[in-house]
Hints:
The chain has six helices and six strands. The chain is α+β, with helices and mostly antiparallel strands. It has a single domain (about 1-175), classed as Alpha-Beta Complex (Maf protein). Strands 1, 2, 3, 4, 5 and 6 form a six-stranded mixed β-sheet that branches. α3 (about 75-85) crosses α4.
Amino acid sequence: MLASGSPRRVQLLALLIQDFQVVVPEVDEGRPAVPQDLLIAARRKAEAAGGEGDIVIGADTGVFLSGRHFGKPVDLAQAREFLLALSGRWHEVYTGVCVLGPAGAGTALVSTRVKFSPLTDEEIEWYLANEEVLDKAGAYAIQGRAGAFVERIEGDFFNVMGFPLYTVYRLLRGQGWRPGP
């Protein structure tokens, strides 16, 4: 079971599991002050969605630059502010993952460093006019047009999409799950 309404997480989990249930938990994610807060939110999501005997995956992703959290922007003005701050700089994308199941709770905090190229005002306006950014941490999706701004990454690409596939796979195996045919 996936405790998330994120279409990206659904798409990525489908690479591992063909048949799974999606439950969108009603959980206050709070405002993460530090990356470890993402683990707390991921566990809350998994616990809120889970049923007895189920394997439940919860995840929460955040972008951090110099200790400042960049969540989902509230409007295009804040999205513009986020992109200007990320322009030409390294930042970290963290995802807290919690997999609940027969073996208890397996958790991980995954970090990926991302470097944006310097962005012009024209590039930012082009991006904001052509991408839906209000549902994305840091106001960007690496798998979309923002991929053109990413000069370099260090770490798990899928983590930047909000679902670190390698880590989720290992946590699922720790719960006794095995890939089917």
